[in-house]
Amino acid sequence: MTLQEYDEWNTRYEETLRRRRGKWEILLKESGLSPSSEGGPVRFPPKSTKVKRYVRKGIPPEWRGAAWFWYAGGQKMLNKHPGLYDELVKKGNGLVSPDSELIERGLRPI
Question: What pTM was computed for the model?
């Protein structure tokens, strides 16, 4: 793929991301949630067929971590086991995993 082909593809893809984000913003507003708070939303609409369809099409890249945390029940787990997350983070500081680079690559926004 040439640079020009990539730029053409990327321009179309960025437009797709803008449209998708707009749909997510409407979905959040319909659910009484704030889509444009600093750093993005921390709460998301309840699971439904519409939400499932939106998730399958793609969560805005900058919201993905927060969305997966919400839908996976992350806050409930933190509340159920207070202090455990911080304890695990302390234990893990300084540890090097052969998969660290792969994990970090997957966490970066697109």
Answer: 0.71
